[in-house]
Amino acid sequence: MNKTYKYILVLLVSIIVAYYNSGKEEAELSGLMPVSRVVDGDTFWAEDGSEKGVKIRLIGVDAPETRNGNNKKIGFYGQEAKAYLTDLLSNQEVRLEYGVDSLDRYGRVLAYVYLSDGTFVNEELIKKGYARVLSIPPNVKYADAFVFYERDARESNRGLWQKESE
Fold first, then answer.
1. pLDDT in tens, 43-65
2. pLDDT per residue as tens digits for the range 72-130
3. Contact predicate 94/33, CB 8 Å
4. 8 Å CB contact between 78 and 66
């Protein structure tokens, strides 16, 4: 097969895969769910129709700890991260985009989270310096973008990247 035909074949396969994945992504989105409570800067509860609700852990981000426990210490900017997420999610409904792995080892739902106005919560936390990137395969869909936003936040001394003396 000559190079032109190989190029066309690769292009067609790419288009088919992109078309298949675009429909798949839409199917992975949940309906809107009201947020009931924020646990910390990267975890919250939402009402899913069950008695208890669902505990959601944001994919791709790691906010500083807000309390000591499980071999973890309170982190610099942890309370601020929790306060920001609380303000962002207060009286909001969210839509979840599920990762490849849908649960973590603690039974929390892993998700990329969007407000009803389209705001991408995971991204906002990193952009504003309330969280750092935490990419755990296979849930790495937005990892490259998150790394870019973290670098920008760090270089701009936003949030947890600010100098502690300031």
1. 999 999 999 999 999 999 999 88
2. 666 778 899 999 999 999 999 999 999 999 999 999 999 999 999 999 999 999 999 99
3. yes
4. yes
Query: Is 65 one of the catalytic residues?
Result: yes
To which H or E segment does residue 43 belong? strand 43-46
Whether 151 sits among the annotated catalytic residues: the reply is: no
Q: pLDDT exceeding 90 applies to what percent of the chain?
A: 67
- The full DSSP string for 115-148 is ETT--BHHHHHHHTTS-EEE-BTTB-TTHHHHHH
| CA distance linking residue 148 with residue 46, whole number of Å | 29
Q: Which residue has the tokens 């207060």?
A: 90
- Name the catalytic one among 108, 123, 124, 150: 108
Options 65, 123, 124, 150, the catalytic residue: 65
DSSP 112: E
Give the CB-side neighbour count of residue 76, counting CA atoms within 13 A.
11
Residue among 26, 28, 57, 93 flagged as catalytic: 57
- pTM higher than 0.90 for the full model? no
